Structure formats: C-alpha cells, structure tokens
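> forwarded from #structure-qc
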C-alpha cells in the first residue's frame, strides 16, 4: 500500500542556525502522524548536517533539494550523492521546476540524476509539471507524460519502489494559485496510468504521487482526499511550524 509523503522544500531559506532551531520546533510540534504518512523536510545543503542531528530518531525524514549526476570530480559548487548520504539524507528532490526553468536542466540530465540516486540508495522525488502557456494550449498531459517517461528512462521495476513522483504545475508554485483538487486529480490519474503502461498495475498503484503548488493548511484536506494524490511537496507553508504541522496532520 502506498504512503502519503508530506514534504517541506525550504528552498534558499534559513541559515544553518535558523534551520536547526526551526527543525527543533518542528520535531516538537509533529509528535504524531498516521501510519500511512511519511514526513520529510529538505533544507539547504549547508544546513543538512545540523538538521540531520535534530531529526534523527524523530518522525521526520531528511531530504535534499538537488544533487549532481556525477559521483565525484572537478564540478565546482556541486554536491554528490555520497555527500548527501554522509549527511543523513534519505530523499532527494530532482527536476524541480526551478531547476528545469531557471537552470535549464533537461529531462536527460534529470534522468541521469534519478539513476545515480537510486544506485546510491537515495529515494528520488521526480518533479514534473507544465508551464501556464502549456496548460492554456491544452498540452498538460503531453508535457507531463513526456517528463515522466524521460525521467524514468532505464529505471527498473525493482527500483520503482523507491521513486516518488511530484506533480507541480509551474503556474501554481509560489503564486498563491492552486489547481483545484479535481484538476490536480486528473493529472495525477494520468501519471498513474502512464506508470501502469511502463511498469504494470501493481507498481502504478503502489507509487506515491505528490502534489506541489501553493499547498497550504487551508487547502491540503481537499487535495489529500483525492484518490490519486498521495502527499504534498510544500514550499512557503513549510517554513511556518504551525502551517506545516497542520499540513502533515491533514484530515482524510
């Protein structure tokens, strides 16, 4: 049975001392979750070690916001999978819309990262989603399906147990706009159908597919009560203890 993954992507916020204090407050606040819910937070690289010590043994898992596709070498400013593992990281967000659109990461590059993450034992959160102009042109399904297929190229059925998909419509990220639960559900159902065509019904049914895009404590319940939405990738609201706690403890 698939689980809900409620994840906080802190983006480029909180210096290590702030991140440590925030994580301490979060651990105290999120003292219980349902058995089918996993909580994850993804601080900046510089805060990973400090936050790792705080969340160790708690209900909260540690994630990273990105990683390089190479194991080591002359890649100034980059972070490897081994570095993340040594910092206590379990999940890594890959292909986030900001990586795709600001830093021009291609599906091929993201696929390399997914495969390296899996090979190293990390759990990749593969992000997919369409731009506003693509949605308005009726291309949402084509764009998202292509990103899923290309992002999972050469990923085996056995490896899919560690993969999370995150659907994040780019037009809803940080804008205050949010896809209605019904609109998000349509895309999630299409993603699950795509996974079924690639890997079969059992794997498709057991893959966690998150929604990301202006998720707040005020709209999380409606989203999580959709059949194919299995969690949230939360930005701004994950930087407030009360808000993220309420999101993590959503009502089914």
């Amino acid at each position: 049975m698939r689980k809900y993954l409620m994840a906080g992507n802190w983006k480029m916020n909180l210096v290590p001392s702030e991140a440590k204090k925030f994580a301490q407050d979060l651990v105290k606040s999120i003292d219980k979750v349902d058995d089918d819910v996993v909580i994850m937070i993804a601080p900046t690289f510089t805060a990973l070690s400090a936050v790792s010590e705080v969340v160790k043994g708690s209900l909260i898992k540690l994630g990273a916001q990105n990683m390089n596709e190479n194991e080591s070498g002359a890649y100034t400013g980059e972070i490897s999978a081994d570095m993340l593992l040594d910092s206590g990281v379990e999940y890594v967000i890959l292909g986030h819309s900001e990586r795709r659109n600001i830093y021009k990461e291609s599906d091929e590059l993201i696929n390399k990262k997914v495969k390296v993450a899996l090979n190293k034992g990390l759990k990749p959160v593969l992000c997919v989603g369409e731009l506003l102009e693509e949605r308005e042109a009726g291309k949402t399904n084509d764009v998202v399906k292509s990103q899923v297929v290309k992002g999972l190229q050469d990923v085996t059925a056995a490896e899919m147990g560690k993969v999370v998909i995150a659907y994040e419509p780019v037009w809803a990220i940080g804008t205050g706009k949010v896809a209605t639960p019904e609109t998000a559900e349509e895309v999630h159902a299409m993603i699950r159908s795509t996974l079924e065509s690639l890997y079969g019904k059992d794997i498709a049914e057991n893959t966690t597919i998150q929604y990301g895009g202006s998720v707040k404590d005020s709209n999380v319940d409606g989203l999580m009560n959709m059949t194919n939405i299995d969690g949230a990738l939360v930005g701004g609201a994950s930087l407030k203890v009360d808000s993220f706690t309420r999101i993590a403890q959503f009502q089914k």
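QC bot note: The longest helix spans residues 181-199. The chain has one domain: 4-248.
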